[in-house]
Amino acid sequence: MTPPPEHRRAPAAVVLGRTADAIAAATLDEEGAELARTEVAASELSAWVAGVEQMSSPRWVWNDAPRWYGTLLADGVRVARCHDLRLCHAILRDSALVAESAAVRRDARWDAAPHAAEESSAPALFELDDTQSSVGPPGDLDEALAELTRQREAIAGSADPARLRLLLAAESAGALLAEELRAAGVPWDAREHDRILAETLGERPPSGGKPAKLVAAGDRVRAALGDPGASLDSQPKLLRSLHRVGVMVESTSRWELAEQEHPVVAPLLEYKRLSRLLSANGWTWLDEWVSEGRFRPVYVPGGVVTGRWASSGGGALQLPRQLREAVRADPGWKLVVADVAQLEPRVLAAMSSDAALAAAARGRDLYAGIVDSGAVGTRQDAKIAILGAMYGATTGQSGRLVPRLRRAYPRAMGLVDDAARTGEDGGVVSTWLGRTSPPPSGAWSAAQSHATEAEASGADETRARRWARDRGRFTRNFVVQGTAAEWALAWLADLRGRLWALPTVDADHAAPRSGPVFGSRAHLAFYLHDEVIVHTPAELADAAARAVTDAAAAAGRLLFGDFPVDFRLDVRVSDTALKD
DNA sequence: GGCGAGCGCGCG
DNA sequence: AAAGCGCGCGCTCGCC
Questions:
Q1: What average pLDDT does range A160-186 have in this prediction?
Q2: Shared domain check, A58 and A139
Q3: Same domain? A54 vs A179
Q4: Do A142 and A34 meet the contact criterion of CB atoms below 8 Å apart?
Q5: Same domain for A25 and A171?
Q6: Which of A74, A134, A366, A420 has the fewest CB atoms in 10 Å of its CB?
Q7: Number of domains in chain A
Q8: Å between A400 CA and C2 C1'?
Q9: Residue that is last in its domain, among A286, A315, A333
Q10: How far does the CA of A535 sit from the C1' of B4, in Å?
Q11: Residue of least CA–C1' distance to C12
């Protein structure tokens, strides 16, 4: 079928790059052939992108999403699709699906770290001449076009182009979403945060000193140690103080202290709890990271080798449960808080086609299903056994339970056991969609080969074996954690589209602090591995909750087709992100 | 005074 | 109880 001419001329993709004083854009057709080239003044870029987006909704191709999209969003421009060259390069470079000879593997300039996230208020972004910048991947149009060509060739020549396309689309959607999450921010009630701090630590001290309850806890510890001058914040000193009063621990970690019977233990654990809250998420954090009712963390898509996101600054991925009450919808808005129950074992069931494990998970708590199958006796045992199987536990209760799972779910356990063996042998493993683990380091390989030589000492052999097992546990977990991250990206990408399709609200119901794009509509506000928070006008909360659930089902089908595994969500509509 | 390592602990 | 995976960050301390 021949499409009408006007459709053929509509660009399938637009590649953006920079010149010394403007933006250069190339429009491409479906096959990647260049249709036209345009120059746009930097100050006009957002308006130009908005127009093209409305007309043809192309896939925007750029070197690095943070470099482009933050400013577009600040200008009120949202795009539907992109291809993030930096992120896709990293995947293709390492993927076992890609031919060894592929040119994309050999251009180290695209191995660059991401650009630091721009302040959304930075007006000079598009004025900067960063074509010569030493930070981030190459910035000019011809470089971007050349890299895109290399990537298209690598995909087309790969062992599974369809999977890779899915992975790269999901990764790129994540790149968009990371900027959107930052633009919208987590709705944060600073007064509630302050109330929690004051209740736990005592009132905020005027000049950055220690709050009263922390001081009091410290005094109780020093009294129990019989040493008014004891230093509690220095691990070596604290350890010596504990030894002096007969608490013979090897570390000062919480779990080891908790095993001890001594009057110092309770106040010390309390002191540690308060001290942690103050230093990690106290008033200093609040001042630095929350403004105008929003926490705007910096997400780093693909920041973890497995494909999980990392974060940079603000500790976005470590928000303590204690502070969830400070996550609070704007007036007239609601939060939809949803997390996946037992994501990783469900993913493992699907990727290994383990029908028995999938059946245990279907329509219920997966751990309860394992108990019902008779493999283990209690829910707690099931949880410990599953975690042990995915992490490679060999000792303790977990190590004892894993063999029972191996009998009950041989396909699932076979998959992770194979991944571990491959890693121990120095090989690489891949996720369901083709993200591949890094090869072993030079030191690792040298240690392994040295251990087989005649002059190797027993210590050499012991060390080599330990490193091999360490790597086996890493590759064992890589396939599951990485595939779970792919499922989560598919979930997010689908949800992002569903939320965008919901109606917008009138200006008098808007949440302007979520920015010009998202202030008038339900939007994603937070994402953490297997959990999302949607901030939505109250009247759309039910629709948003349905979108979250429907997106999870769609993600399961997209990755695993008809394989009968379900991804159960706990979904709550509430004013706060508090978990029960 | 800057920098990296080690510790400990928050999250999944 | 932690064990077995993946992170980021604040703190101290030794080194330069």
A1: 98
A2: yes
A3: yes
A4: no
A5: yes
A6: A134
A7: 4
A8: 14
A9: A286
A10: 41
A11: A234
